[in-house]
Each structure stands twice: as structure tokens, then as C-alpha cells.
């Protein structure tokens, strides 16, 4: 696909009588940008209002939405449809919350069937999904293939003292950390979430390997592709629900100019093997209210294509409410 083209020209501003042209300041961006956000969780009224106010800074901006728009199909469709009306392109990768089957959602589909249903809805909206050809961004920092991924987790980010999934889950249960996925994210028709993850890893590797060798990528996955981002979790036992060791070399192997992820609700930037990994979540109101800046403002991606890399300090955070210090659903 063809990405953003030449920036649209803006009509000149009118200068009020009696004022010189120097008095007029135009703060609009001069070029389009690739931007990203995740974990919008629009079931929260305050988050929904943020999405209602979310607009591009340039008419040719693209928006990456790296999962956890919401849990209810109606909410997901509303949010992605609204954003697609405003941004030149929208690229979506599913989070675990989209794959839940909440007991009060009228859409009762589970597992892969629910995912397939969301893909169909996104296509109707004109939103790119992991099942579509990867669009090529040709604006600032490009060209890059923007690759939305759907790779789950397989419990390999387990508690260090554990040698098996069962041991790691037992440690988590003793610590009072149980992810809501265990009750709401069904792997149908696969026998387990890790089996579904293995199938997704194999399918995704084949697609990434088929990309031209001279085309860099932006890899977009709800879960981090490497384990390092989980090292700042307040509840380290939650890491086993945060990714798979099978993707650790993907950023280098598939020429990632940047990796975009969410899930942890800890916005930060870190580097591994020279590749920037950027967490872009909004999170829950109790989390974003404690942070400086405008909540929900999409992060500009590919800034390091023209600037030297600089490690950012990790922001304090506890991780998403999926990992509470008790059993139960949030």
C-alpha cells in the first residue's frame, strides 16, 4: 500500500487589520506523522471523552492503535470507527481485552472466532488489521512497513524460580496475582492460550519473512516483544501474561525501526540492540491522572530516524488492573 504522500497545503491565515504578518503564529505541524496510542479502555467514561476529543495534528497523520480499545464489540467498533473518520489511516493490533468474552456482551463469540469477527468489522471500517497487507508509511521517517501483529503469550515470561507454566501460575496464585484472562480470554478452538500463541507466532513469522529485505518495519503488538519492559512491574508475577520469548529476536531479524506496544500501562521508551521499544498506553483514569501532560495524546513514532537514540527513564506504575493483588475481575 502507499503511505502518506505530500503534505496537504493549508490556506493562508488572514491577518487582522492593523497587525503585521509577524503577529500571526501557525503552530500546525508542517508534515504528517505516524502516531500511536494503546489501552484506550473506552468503557471508562473519562477515557471515552478523551477518545471523543482525539484528533490528528496534521490531516495526513496515521494512527496506530496497539490494543485494548475495550472489551465490548460495540465499544470497539465505535472507537475505531470514530478514529478512522479522523485519521488518514488507522492500524489496529488486538489486545487481550478485545479477546475477552464478557458475560454481559451481546456478542458471545469466543477465542479465534471473536478475533475473526473483529477483523471483519475493522475491514468494514477501513481499519488495517494483522490479517491485511502491511501498509507502507512513506511520510517522515519512512518508508517502513507498519506491521500490526497478533501474538499472544505462552507463559514463558514466567517467574524466575519456576521451571514450568504450572509452577509459575502457582507462584502467582500464592502472591494473589491472577490475570482476568484466565476467566475471560478463551482459546477456542485451540486447546490452550499457549497453543493459540504458537500458531500465531508461526503465521506471523512467515508473513514478516516475506517482506522485502530492504524495507524496514514498525512492529506493533499489544504485548511487548521482549521481556525487558516487564522488569518494572510492581507485581513481577504478572509478566507471564505479557508475551512470549519466541519474539525476542524479531525486532532485529525483521529490521524494526521501532517497536510499539502497550498492555503494561507504563508509558516509556527503552532500547535493546539499538531498536527503540515504545509503550504508548493511556491506561485507566487512576493511572493517567498521575502523569504529566495531556492524557491520550498519541505518541509520535519514528522520531529517532533523524535523531540520536536516547534511553528514557521508566515511569512508575503497577501494570494494568488485570493483575490485581487479589482474585477477581475488573
Automatic annotation (TrEMBL):
<dbReference type="Pfam" id="PF00149">
    <property type="entry name" value="Metallophos"/>
</dbReference>
<protein>
    <submittedName>
        <fullName>Metallophosphoesterase</fullName>
    </submittedName>
</protein>
<feature type="compositionally biased region" description="Low complexity">
    <location>
        <begin position="309"/>
        <end position="322"/>
    </location>
</feature>
<feature type="region of interest" description="Disordered">
    <location>
        <begin position="286"/>
        <end position="330"/>
    </location>
</feature>
<dbReference type="InterPro" id="IPR052963">
    <property type="entry name" value="Pantetheine_PDE"/>
</dbReference>
<feature type="domain" description="Calcineurin-like phosphoesterase">
    <location>
        <begin position="37"/>
        <end position="267"/>
    </location>
</feature>
<feature type="region of interest" description="Disordered">
    <location>
        <begin position="1"/>
        <end position="27"/>
    </location>
</feature>
<dbReference type="InterPro" id="IPR004843">
    <property type="entry name" value="Calcineurin-like_PHP"/>
</dbReference>
<dbReference type="GO" id="GO:0016787">
    <property type="term" value="F:hydrolase activity"/>
</dbReference>
<dbReference type="InterPro" id="IPR029052">
    <property type="entry name" value="Metallo-depent_PP-like"/>
</dbReference>
Amino acid at each position: 500500500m502507499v503511505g502518506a504522500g505530500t503534505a496537504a497545503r493549508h490556506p493562508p491565515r488572514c491577518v487582522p487589520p492593523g497587525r503585521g504578518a509577524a503577529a500571526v503564529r501557525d503552530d500546525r505541524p508542517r508534515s504528517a506523522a505516524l502516531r500511536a496510542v494503546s489501552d484506550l479502555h473506552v468503557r471508562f467514561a473519562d477515557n471515552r471523552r478523551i477518545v471523543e476529543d482525539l484528533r490528528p495534528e496534521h490531516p495526513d497523520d496515521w494512527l496506530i492503535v496497539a490494543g485494548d480499545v475495550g472489551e465490548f464489540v460495540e465499544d470497539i467498533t465505535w472507537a475505531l470507527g470514530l478514529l478512522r473518520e479522523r485519521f488518514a489511516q488507522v492500524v489496529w493490533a488486538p489486545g487481550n481485552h478485545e479477546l475477552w468474552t464478557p458475560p454481559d456482551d451481546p456478542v458471545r463469540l469466543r477465542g479465534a472466532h471473536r478475533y475473526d469477527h473483529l477483523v471483519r468489522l475493522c475491514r468494514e471500517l477501513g481499519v488495517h488489521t494483522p490479517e491485511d497487507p502491511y501498509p507502507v508509511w512513506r511520510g517522515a521517517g519512512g518508508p517502513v512497513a507498519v506491521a500490526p501483529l497478533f501474538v499472544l503469550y505462552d507463559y514463558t515470561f514466567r517467574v524466575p524460580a519456576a521451571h514450568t507454566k504450572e509452577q509459575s501460575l502457582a507462584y502467582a496464585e500464592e502472591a494473589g496475582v491472577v490475570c482476568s484472562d484466565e476467566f475471560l480470554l478463551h482459546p477456542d478452538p485451540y486447546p490452550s492460550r499457549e497453543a493459540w500463541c504458537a500458531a500465531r507466532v508461526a503465521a506471523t513469522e512467515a508473513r514478516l519473512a516475506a517482506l522485502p529485505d530492504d524495507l524496514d518495519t514498525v512492529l506493533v503488538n499489544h504485548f511487548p516483544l521482549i521481556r525487558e519492559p516487564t522488569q518494572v512491574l510492581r507485581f513481577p508475577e504478572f509478566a507471564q501474561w505479557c508475551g512470549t520469548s519466541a519474539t525476542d529476536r524479531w525486532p532485529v531479524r525483521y529490521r524494526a525501526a521501532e517497536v510499539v506496544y502497550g498492555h503494561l500501562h507504563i508509558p516509556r521508551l527503552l532500547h535493546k540492540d539499538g531498536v527503540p521499544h515504545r509503550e504508548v498506553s493511556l491506561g485507566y483514569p487512576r493511572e493517567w491522572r498521575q502523569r504529566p501532560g495531556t492524557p491520550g495524546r498519541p505518541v509520535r513514532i519514528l522520531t529517532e530516524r533523524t535523531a540520536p537514540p536516547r534511553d528514557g527513564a521508566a515511569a512508575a506504575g503497577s501494570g494494568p488492573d488485570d493483575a490485581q493483588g487479589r482474585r477477581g475481575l475488573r
